[in-house]
Design goal:
heterodimer, A: 7-stranded mixed β-sheet, B: Ubiquitin-like (UB roll), binds flavin-adenine dinucleotide, binds iron/sulfur cluster, binds FE2/S2 (inorganic) cluster
Chain lengths: 545, 108
């Protein structure tokens, strides 16, 4: 069989946010780009993410992942990027020859493409954890469950145990509940929730228990039904199960969210030097400040160079796309440097705060090692990656709303107390009442004087962490408004159960308003009234289906 | 409830799609045109796709994106088809795979 050789300026491997953004930036400068992905749909991780993304406005925060994906695909198509789907890259050689296995209507064919620049944006795969019977049908990756419910629209069970409380575990748990499942609990061997507090709070308000300091011992089940239960146990300081603490949970699905591992095998095959950094998920290719690997002309961007977020993946992709366009002579060095400098600053800001700090240091190490390995001089064409000083954040806060006056009228209450890279609330407020500023990891601060109680920030917050409290509702009652993204939306006048932040029953409450506007993008705002004494705690409702 | 998600707060109501018939272990079942085999089976509560050769242990969907091969089945006579990334077709014959094929008479 003769396989013809196709020549391109640039081949991008993987059509997730990192690959798409590098293709877009390069195509904007007139580079001929071929974007290859093994899936039947472009978008990478994005096409199963139906939640509003956190991040900044530069990264389309507050927009649902699937919609970000669609926008990126449209933009790349408009710019003339060639997209090959159902096409898996099975070989990559250091003379920049890409071997692609393409599947068209059930027929497989091989394609050889040679390019001046190659961008590896293969993302990451889910890590597996072993326990007794972990191979039983019904034990699956959190990503598999997410694909099942959000892409195929099939719920693979009724009662779920989520193993892992990082953002993936938290978000997929929330989405399982939205899909109609019962999440029986989340377990984590660590003593604290790994992901963002705002994501954890969403499911806690639904009454889902968190078993911290716990591990899974075994899956119960048989060869005919698959999983029928799970045995979990408390762990000691060395993460060893404490005997006698075992608990059995009746579940039919166990989902694993034990972290992601960069898919860096292709980079390795092409001769790119790698290093092992646990904060980044495992083996990652070294790269310089423009994302170029140790093999000149081959770039690595997104989760493959360290598991992070779509925001950072987008920015890394942009950096590589621009640098490659520059090296191909499509953009002037001065202009390219200007662009790269502003991206570098943005991406640095995304890695601040307690959640980003370790990744920031790890990324710094990767770049340092790149220069050691290649023996190249580190040209400081712009600021080296260094943490900039952060505003001290209030770590602990009382949850009471005592500061709000009975005569005051509606006012926002922001229950977002961790330094995370997110700011759509700031942008949503047309009255300048919410301040985050720079860096983006600052905790949002509400200026109550300026807050008119319009409520527009509520549906914009991807963490569903903003509430609107009105104590002036009646002499003995107050109202609380909150976003409510579940199947059964209550109606005005309904009597419902008000619950607290852990989903515990508080009191009966009347639904006084339900607002569902187009611009809220499927996040209705529900307002309930409760006796004044419950207003500190009432943060959600429970409706029996 | 396990099975098809008819109403969803974000994705909206499930649109009625054209149905096709597939044959699973000799029984006719309905599937949605173009959906993945694994999704069609899961919608009917079927989650055991194959049994391993040596220990005869059951396997089902694990990664859902074509990476692990746990979901492999015998499709139209061909073994080891990853059902999570293979769309259904009208009249497709799908069998639980025992070992390397559904007769389980293969070597390791
Ligand atoms: C549950 C969940 C929630 C998330 N929520 C957020 C959020 O709110 N905000 C946020 O910023 N981020 C979020 N993320 C993270 C974000 O989705 C990822 O960090 C991001 O998608 C990584 O982008 P990427 O382009 O590097 O990789 P991916 O999106 O994984 O894309 C890589 C693509 O390359 C393809 N590929 C791999 N190897 C090959 C090959 N050999 N040949 C062809 N194609 C190949 C893959 O199939 C895939 O399509 C979330 C992730 C998950 C799992
Ligand atoms: S309620 Fe309105 S005015 Fe108050 S912070 Fe939110 S958006 Fe701004
Ligand atoms: S309150 Fe603001 S910073 Fe916090 S999650 Fe919501 S939008 Fe993001
Ligand atoms: S479930 Fe892993 S390949 Fe299908």
């Amino acid at each position: 069989m003769v396989i013809i050789l196709i020549k391109m300026d640039m081949v991008v491997i993987g059509a997730g946010p990192a690959g798409l953004s590098s293709a877009i930036e390069a195509a904007k400068e007139g580079v001929d780009v071929l974007l290859v992905d093994e899936n039947i749909k472009a978008g990478g991780q994005l096409f199963k993410q139906i939640h509003k993304f956190f991040g900044s406005s530069d990264h389309r925060a507050g927009v649902r992942g699937i919609d970000i994906g669609k926008e990126l695909i449209n933009e790349s198509r408009k710019l003339g990027v060639n997209i090959w789907l159902n096409s898996i890259v099975i070989g990559l050689f250091d003379d920049k020859l890409v071997l692609i296995k393409q599947n068209k209507d059930g027929r497989e064919s091989l394609k050889r493409v040679q390019a001046d620049k190659i961008i590896i944006a293969t993302g990451a795969s889910e890590k597996v954890i072993n326990f007794t019977n972990w191979t039983l049908p019904g034990v699956m990756g959190a990503g598999a469950a997410q694909t099942m419910i959000n892409v195929h629209r099939v719920l693979p069970g009724d009662r779920f145990l989520m193993v892992g409380t990082g953002n993936v575990g938290l978000i997929v748990s929330y989405q399982l509940i939205q899909a109609g499942a019962e999440v029986v609990g989340l377990i984590d061997a660590a003593k604290e929730v790994g992901g963002y507090g705002v994501h954890a709070a969403k499911i806690a308000r639904k009454g889902v228990p968190f078993y911290l300091n716990h591990t899974i011992i075994k899956a119960e089940g048989n060869n005919k039904d698959g999983v029928t239960g799970a045995v979990i146990a408390e762990v000691d300081n060395n993460w060893q199960p404490i005997s006698g603490s075992e608990k059995e949970l009746k579940v039919d699905v166990i989902t694993l969210a034990a972290g992601l591992k960069p898919l860096s095998e292709l980079a390795n095959m092409a001769g790119c030097k790698r290093t092992y950094i646990s904060e980044l998920g495992g083996w990652v290719p070294l790269h310089n400040e423009n994302m170029e690997s140790t093999v000149s002309g081959i770039y690595v961007v997104g989760d493959v160079t360290g598991v992070e977020e779509a925001n950072t993946a987008l920015e890394e992709g942009r950096l590589a796309g621009i640098d490659a366009a520059e090296k191909l002579g499509k953009i002037a060095v001065k202009e390219s440097n200007k662009k790269k400098k502003s991206i570098t600053k943005r991406v640095k800001n995304l890695r601040l705060g307690p959640f980003g700090e370790n990744r920031l240091k790890a990324k710094e190490k990767l770049i340092k090692e790149y220069y050691e390995v290649t023996g190249k001089d580190y040209r400081e064409n712009y600021d080296s990656v260094q943490a900039i000083e952060q505003k001290a954040a209030e770590k602990t806060r009382s949850m009471s709303v005592d500061h709000i006056d009975k005569t005051q009228g509606p006012v926002a209450v922001i229950e977002c107390h961790q330094e995370i890279p997110c700011n759509p609330c700031e942008l949503a407020c047309k009255f300048g009442a919410i301040e985050i500023g720079e860096p983006i990891t600052n905790v949002p601060i509400l200026n109550e004087e300026k807050c008119t109680g319009c409520g527009l920030c509520l549906p914009q917050c991807p963490g569903l962490a903003i509430f609107l409290i009105d104590k002036s509702y009646s002499p003995d009652k107050s109202t609380v408004a909150f976003p409510y993204e579940y199947k059964h939306i209550p109606k005005k006048g309904d009597m419902v159960d008000a619950v607290d932040r852990q989903g515990n029953y508080l009191c009966k409450a009347e639904v006084v308003k339900v607002l569902q506007l187009e611009k809220f993008d499927k996040t209705p705002i529900v307002t309930i009234s409760v006796l004044d004494k419950y207003i500190d705690d009432a943060r959600n409702i429970k409706i029996s289906d | 409830m396990a099975g098809r998600i008819d109403r969803h707060p974000i994705l909206g109501k499930r649109k009625a799609k054209e149905e096709v018939e597939i044959i699973f272990n000799g029984k006719k079942i309905k599937a949605e045109k173009g959906e993945m085999i694994a999704a069609a089976l899961q919608a009917k509560g079927i989650r055991i796709h194959r049994y391993t050769i040596k220990n005869k242990e059951p396997r089902g969907v694990f990664c859902g994106i074509g990476q692990c091969t746990d979901c492999a089945m015998e499709v139209n006579g061909q073994p080891n088809v990853r059902t999570c990334v293979t769309p259904v077709e009208a009249g497709m014959v799908i069998n639980t795979q025992y070992g390397l094929n559904r007769d389980g008479d293969n070597i390791d």
